[in-house]
Amino acid sequence: MANAYMDMETLTYLLNDVHQWQDLLDLPDYADHDMASVALLIKSVKEFADKEMHPYFKEMDERPAHFRDGEIVVHPQVPKYMAASGEMGLLAGGFPYKDGGMQLPSMVMNALGYIQEAANNHLPGYIGLTIGAAELITHFGNDHLNQTYVPKMLEGSWGGTMCLTEPQAGSSLSDIVTSATPDGDHYNIHGQKIFISGGDYQGAENIVHLLLARIDGAPAGTKGISLFVVPKNRPEQNGKLTPNGVETVADFEKMGQKGYCTTHLFFGGKAACHGYLVGEPHKGLKYMFLMMNSARIAVGRGAAAICAAAYQASLNYAHERAQGRKLTSTEKKDVQQEQTLIVNHPDVRRMLLLQKVVSEGALSLVLLTSKYQDLSKSLESAQEREKYTLLLELLTPIVKTYPSEMGRIAVDNGLQILGGYGFCSDYILQQYLRDIRIFSIYEGTTGIQSQDLLGRKITMHQGKALELLSQEIATTIKAATAHDRLKGCAGQLGGKLQETQKILKTLMGHAQKGDYERFLADATPFMEYFSNVLLAWLWLGMALKSQQALIHGDAEHSTDFHKSKIHAMEFYFTYELPKTTGLAEIIMNHKSLTVASGEKVFGEHF
Fold this sequence. Notes:
Structural class: alpha+beta
Strand order of the largest sheet: 4-5-12-7-6
Low-confidence stretches: none
Mean pLDDT: 94
Helix content: 40-55%
Number of strands: 12
Strand content: 5-15%
């Protein structure tokens, strides 16, 4: 069971049957690929993950990345993984042919990333940020930047990062102060950046930083931010690399993802640091948002993968651990009976089902959002592209948040299944719990995502995105109503759509009065509410496919497989969806208990 860190059958079921990725392969952009070749690629990545990633997962936690003698020491598998990823096309896979890529759909690339992160979530970030940095250069950089940096990045020789956060600014990018002074064909960069994932490590020939800074005299706020390529080492015309004044100050020691280095960098402190403008001045934040959709999907994907791996670990344990006796109708237990496996205890089964519905639902959400991303770029009709762009925008904060927040709760339940052993380092659940905790912070905290959802995405284009999503949900409800076993849940979901409109009417009342602070004060409870409703839709869609397969037959999956999906859907509608009732009551309450007032709520220190 050493490599039982994910359920490949469920992944392929979601890809093939539920989200029908054949639709993408039929588009002109992806016509060179077919189901057989993509399936072969997935199989090869799974084999690679089994051999080169999963065996080092625990070891990378026990031998964490650390700062020593001016550089970051990482596990030896990191540079090997970078090189292998280049050889296998895991870096170039999603790029168009013109940029040296394989032009694979985002949905395929996220399936490949999911497999890797389930195997070892410490490694994929190194290539993920390299992909993001290279993507920005290909979209907005000039020919020289593209030719100088992108090929080396996509072959895995050079790493890449995104340098946004500064000590005094945190998530408030309008407050960054890193400066860029014009000097001939480049800018002199001066400042520091923190929390830079994969920012530097032993064995890396070069790191290409995509950095936000202010050109001297730029406007204040986000309107004055520009984007620069800042390499650790400058490539010279003779092919040699010259140090570029990028100093590694420290590596942050973390509670989880210890094999994934997180650096503190200083630019232009001890030597001149050259930066090269990407695109036009003062448009850096706009450019950076190009990668935000992909980055936030990737964060949700990573959390979903950890959740799935933790589920497999706790499921395996529950099928091996004998403890106690099954409950009977008699008051006294028969101690003469053999102990039963804990998987037979109802409360353990409840926790396992919670892990199942969260992990599989989160994966479904990641794949659907990825499909919307592909359709928004590749459909021939401009009207259809706009439709899926709006749906993508609406789902992006949710796909980042739900797997991160509910995934953590699911993993925590997995640890509980192990009892005292779950708290011990001999068992892997504690590592999964520590690793997943960062995902609700990556790429903008839950609070930031929630304000984005309610304050921007729900209201954009007069609610057009929400209208489109409601139509998608209504289509599933109508189809599910035709089946006796599903019609009750379909009706339940329909009621939640009506309740959502009632909630939004209440919240918009605050906005219409100009009380935007009150409007957004409960954005996070709304995120939890809306995510729960969205996942109910996804589970109803899965159950609908399985119900149809039971009726018409399915050569690929067993009857038990499909029945398990329907059972999981019923569990979700029984145990998870009803939680929205309490959330609705919280959100529509007239009290403003979290908005700052003159009262000293937290004592006289404030």
